[in-house]
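Example complex used in Figure S2.
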Amino acid sequence: DTEVTQTPKHLVMGMTNKKSLKCEQHMGHRAMYWYKQKAKKPPELMFVYSYEKLSINESVPSRFSPECPNSSLLNLHLHALQPEDSALYLCASSQGPGGLGGYTFGSGTRLTVV
Amino acid sequence: SQQGEEDPQALSIQEGENATMNCSYKTSINNLQWYRQNSGRGLVHLILIRSNEREKHSGRLRVTLDTSKKSSSLLITASRAADTASYFCATGLAIYNQGGKLIFGQGTELSVKP
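Predicted assembly (228 residues):
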């Protein structure tokens, strides 16, 4: 299995909702990442997990809460989002510490906050 | 920020022509990577060049890296309509005890006309 699987592919949520984005990989990769991408812009790094521990948080608002239950799964819990949080959320994994090898990206969750 | 500039922002060529995209970055890196993204979905890793390498080839792709100028270029030879996509350079930096980061440039939109 050489894929990163993200669910759901599309999500529409109200500003008072709580939802979760899920990401799964079975390549034995020990680093996983969340990126946010707005239209016509590059992906922006949000969180880095290395060996299931949160190692980098790029000053992301607390309404985004990451969780890494085990080495294959990465969740992003969403609560009280704003319309400007609407974006494509991308999960990625890499074999070793971030920055030293190629990343495998999922196809993303397109989130719309209404 | 490590995010660099890509040049040009948009490039339109005919099938069979070569496409060259340039990337500049600001800080020290461990490697530089190029990714392709179709229609705002997941990114596909194309090629990685380490900071001690100057040139690398993969199929129709040729990447150069000049660390003294903090710049890289991606050449796609004999382009095809299927190469139409957004192309991003990304700088990889390992951070002691934190894993590491992959930071993306602004991207080049390539359009290959049949």
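Residues 2 and 27 of chain A are 6 Å apart (CA to CA). The interface with chain B takes residues 4, 31, 33, 37, 39, 41-45, 48-50, 55-56, 88, 90, 92, 94, 97-108, 110 of chain A (CB under 8 Å).
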